[in-house]
C-alpha cells in the first residue's frame, strides 16, 4: 500500500523517513515538478521539525501514523502547486528568512540583484542613508538593506495593509524594526520626505501573460504581478513620482521584467531622470535599472 494510503487508512506498516522522502519524490516527479527530491526533503524535514541536513542521519527513523498523515497533507499541497516556501511559511532572501502570507509576493532570487546594486551605491557603511521601498510586500528589500547598513533608516510602503503587517513583522524578526517605518498607501503619494535610495520591484507582468505563468505564481497576489496591458503601468506612475522623492545625489533601483529595459528607461527619461546603470541578474538578464534624479 502506498505511504499516503496507509496513513489515510490508519495502517501501521513500517514507514521510515527515507520511505516518506522517496514516495514524495516519486509523486512530485510524476507530476512534473522541477526539483522533486529537494521539495520532498524540505517538506519531510518541515513535518519532522528538523533541518534538512538532519535527514541524513534520521533516514531510518520510523514515522508514526500521525506523522505520515501530516506529510501526506504537505505533499498534497505541493501537488496542487503551492510553492514550497509558502508551505514552509518563509523564504530565504539575501541573508534572512522572510515570513510570507497570502498578501505578499514570495520574494524571488533575482530581486536580490536590487540589493546588490543598491549596496554597491551605498559605499559608506556608516552613513545614515534614508531608504524608501515602494511596494514593500514582505519587506525583503528594505529589511535586507537596513540589515547591511546599521545607521540607515527606511520606509516601506504598500497599498495592501496585510502586506505591511507582514513587512513590519519581518523587520522585527530581523532586528531592524527601530529603523524601519511602514505605511499603507498608494506608491509614494503620501510622502513629503526625500530619500537617498529608492528601491522598487513593481508589478510588471503584462496582463495577457498572467494566465501563462507557472501554476505556483497563482499563489502570489495578483496586485503584486499585474502591470496592466503591456506590463508598464506601474513604471508610468512611478517614474515621475520617484524622481520627485529623490534627494540630491540619490538613486533609484527598479526591478525590470524580461525585455523591459528600453521601455522603462524611456519612461524615466521622459519624466526628467537619467539612467545611471543597469545590473544583470545571475541569468544575465537586465534586472535592475539604476536611475538618478536629473540629467547631468
Ligand atoms: C512585485 S511585488 C514586490 C514585493 C517586494 N518588494 C519584493 O520584491 O518581493 C509589488 C508590490 O507592490 C504593491 N503595490 C501594487 N500596487 C501598489 C500601489 N499602487 N501602491 C503601493 N504598493 C502597490 C503590491 O501590493 C506588492 O506588494
What topology emerges from the helices and strands here?
Blueprint: H1 3-8, H2 17-30, H3 36-48, H4 55-58, H5 65-79, H6 84-88, E1 90-93, E2 96-99, H7 112-121, E3 130-134, H8 140-148, E4 153-158, H9 161-174, E5 180-184, E6 195-200, H10 233-245, E7 246-255, H11 261-270, E8 274-280, E9 286-292
Parallel strand pairs: 3-4, 3-6, 4-5, 6-7
Antiparallel strand pairs: 1-2, 7-9, 8-9
Helix pairs in contact: 2-3, 2-5, 3-5, 7-8
The structure holds S-adenosylmethionine.
Residues 105, 107, 111, 135-138, 140-141, 157-160, 163, 186-187, 201-203, 223-224 line the site of S-adenosylmethionine (SAM).
CATH homology-level superfamily of the largest domain: Vaccinia Virus protein VP39
Tell the overall outline: elongated
Q: Determine Rg (CA atoms, Å).
A: 22 Å
CATH topology title of the largest domain: Rossmann fold
Q: Would you list the SSEs in sequence order as H and E?
A: HHHHHHEEHEHEHEEHEHEE
Could you say how many structural domains there are in total?
Answer: 2
Would you identify the regions where 5 or more consecutive residues have pLDDT less than 50? Answer: 1-11
| Shape-level CATH architecture of the largest domain | 3-Layer(aba) Sandwich
> Which class best fits the helix and strand makeup?
alpha/beta
Tell how many strands the DSSP assignment holds: 9
Number of helices: 11
State the share of residues found in helices, binned by percent. Answer: 25-40%
What kind of sheet is the major sheet?
7 strands, mixed
Strand content: 15-25%
CATH C-level of the largest domain: Alpha Beta
**What is the distance, rounded to the nearest whole angstrom, between the alpha carbons of the first and last residues?**
72 Å
Strand neighbour order, sheet with most strands: 5-4-3-6-7-9-8
- What molecules are bound to this protein? S-adenosylmethionine
Mean pLDDT comes to 94
Amino acid at each position: 500500500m502506498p505511504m499516503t494510503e496507509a496513513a489515510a487508512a490508519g495502517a501501521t506498516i513500517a514507514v521510515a523517513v527515507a520511505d516518506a522522502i522517496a514516495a514524495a519524490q516519486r509523486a512530485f516527479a510524476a507530476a512534473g515538478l522541477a526539483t522533486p527530491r529537494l521539495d520532498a526533503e524540505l517538506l519531510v524535514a518541515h513535518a519532522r521539525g528538523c533541518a534538512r541536513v538532519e535527514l541524513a542521519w534520521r533516514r531510518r527513523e520510523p514515522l508514526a501514523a500521525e506523522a505520515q498523515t501530516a506529510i501526506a497533507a504537505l505533499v498534497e499541497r505541493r501537488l496542487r502547486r503551492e510553492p514550497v516556501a509558502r508551505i514552509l511559511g518563509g523564504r530565504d532572501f539575501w541573508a534572512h528568512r522572510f515570513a510570507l502570507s497570502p498578501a505578499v509576493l514570495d520574494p524571488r532570487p533575482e530581486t536580490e540583484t536590487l540589493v546588490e546594486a543598491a549596496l554597491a551605491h551605498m559605499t559608506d557603511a556608516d552613513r545614515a542613508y534614508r531608504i524608501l521601498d515602494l511596494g514593500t510586500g514582505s519587506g525583503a528589500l528594505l529589511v535586507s538593506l537596513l540589515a547591511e547598513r546599521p545607521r540607515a533608516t527606511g520606509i516601506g510602503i504598500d497599498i495592501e495593509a496585510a502586506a505591511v503587517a507582514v513587512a513590519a513583522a519581518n523587520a522585527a524578526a530581523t532586528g531592524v524594526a527601530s529603523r524601519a517605518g511602514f505605511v499603507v498607501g498608494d506608491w509614494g503619494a503620501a510622502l513629503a520626505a526625500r530619500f537617498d535610495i529608492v528601491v522598487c520591484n513593481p508589478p510588471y507582468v503584462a496582463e495577457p501573460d498572467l494566465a501563462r505563468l507557472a501554476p505556483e505564481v497563482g499563489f502570489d497576489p495578483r496586485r503584486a504581478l499585474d502591470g496592466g496591458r503591456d506590463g508598464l503601468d506601474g513604471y508610468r506612475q512611478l517614474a515621475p513620482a520617484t524622481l520627485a522623492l529623490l534627494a540630491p545625489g540619490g538613486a533609484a533601483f527598479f526591478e525590470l521584467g524580461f525585455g523591459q529595459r528600453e521601455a522603462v528607461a524611456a519612461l524615466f527619461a521622459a519624466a526628467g531622470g537619467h539612467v545611471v546603470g543597469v545590473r544583470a541578474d545571475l541569468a544575465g538578464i537586465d534586472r535592475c535599472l539604476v536611475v538618478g534624479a536629473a540629467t547631468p
